[in-house]
Design a protein that fits this description.
The chain is an all-alpha fold and about 200 residues long. It is built from nine helices and no strands. It has helices at about 10-25, 30-40, 45-50, 55-70, 80-100, 100-115, 120-140, 145-165, 175-190. Helix 1 packs across helix 2 (about 30-40).
Length: about 200
């Protein structure tokens, strides 16, 4: 059931299983008992790790962020320019779509639940702020003079693509790496004032 990482501890097993259940069964299918059963743990094990539902959801959000952070671990030096940054981001987006797509579905379940639970919203936003800060730093190094605004544009573009291809109207078609790279080069070229590769006058 869970895409569990070898050598990880009990809390990570519970969190990985929770994410897998969210992707497979939705929010209603996520219970402490269901996690115990799916993970092959003795009854009550999940409650020992996360006693309340809020604690279980926070554990899932934290684990999700850890797993997604690996996708940004191989970014090129943004000072090499917008095209280099686009190449690195394209690889991260493509891996999200072609790797564990269930991780994307689990993120949407958690995001929607956060709209109904103010305490989860606060935790979800704090966790997500780390990614915004990383992207802002990358864009600043690449030459952005308005990194906060550009982060919003970049996240909106990437999230729109991911949702459309994982759960939306383009769910039956996954763009290849070249398509994603081209889209990001066009976007970053516009945001940062660089011309796309091969543009007239190069």
């Amino acid at each position: 059931m869970p895409a569990h990482q070898p050598g990880a501890g009990r809390a990570d097993l519970v969190a990985d299983t929770a994410l897998a259940l969210l992707a497979e069964r939705g929010m209603r299918g996520l219970t402490h008992r269901a996690v115990d059963e799916a993970a092959g743990l003795p009854p009550g094990s999940t409650s020992n790790v996360a006693r309340t539902r809020q604690a279980l959801l926070e554990l899932a959000v934290r684990r999700h962020a850890e797993r997604e952070a690996r996708l940004l671990a191989e970014m090129p030096d943004p000072r090499d320019g917008p095209e280099a940054l686009a190449d690195g981001l394209a690889l991260a987006v493509h891996r999200s779509l072609t790797g564990d797509r269930g991780l994307l579905i689990a993120r949407y379940e958690l995001a929607l639940e956060a709209t109904r639970r103010p305490e989860l919203r606060a935790f979800y936003d704090r966790t997500g702020a780390v990614f915004k800060e990383q992207l802002a730093a990358l864009l600043t190094a690449a030459g952005s003079r308005e990194p906060d605004r550009h982060v919003l544009s970049l996240v909106a573009w990437a999230d729109g693509l991911l949702f459309s291809c994982a759960a939306g109207s383009f769910g039956s078609r996954t763009p290849d790496l070249d398509e994603i790279r081209t889209g990001l080069r066009e976007l970053l070229g516009g945001l940062l004032g660089a011309r796309p590769e091969g543009a007239a006058g190069d």
